[in-house]
Amino acid sequence: MKTYDVTEAAAYCKCHPETIREHIRAGRIAASKPGRKYCITQPALDAFLCGLQNAQLQASLESRSEEKCLKLKDYIAVGAVSGTLT
């Protein structure tokens, strides 16, 4: 099983090493620390990236849904006003 240190994991995830450390400390990336350095497995990085993509997709879908609701409210409000004036 392939393992990475923080610098290698950052290159794999295309981010800064400190970002990887923050995610490890927050528990979002599973890692061990046998000495002074973190040791991260490829499955742990893949799980993190998959979860990150799912979270971004979910946020995007929620944003779109919210926009549609707001547009519908505007449409209903305009329709109600114009309906009473005619």
From TrEMBL:
<dbReference type="InterPro" id="IPR010093">
    <property type="entry name" value="SinI_DNA-bd"/>
</dbReference>
<dbReference type="Pfam" id="PF12728">
    <property type="entry name" value="HTH_17"/>
</dbReference>
<dbReference type="InterPro" id="IPR041657">
    <property type="entry name" value="HTH_17"/>
</dbReference>
<feature type="domain" description="Helix-turn-helix">
    <location>
        <begin position="4"/>
        <end position="49"/>
    </location>
</feature>
<dbReference type="GO" id="GO:0003677">
    <property type="term" value="F:DNA binding"/>
</dbReference>
<protein>
    <submittedName>
        <fullName>DNA binding excisionase family domain protein</fullName>
    </submittedName>
</protein>
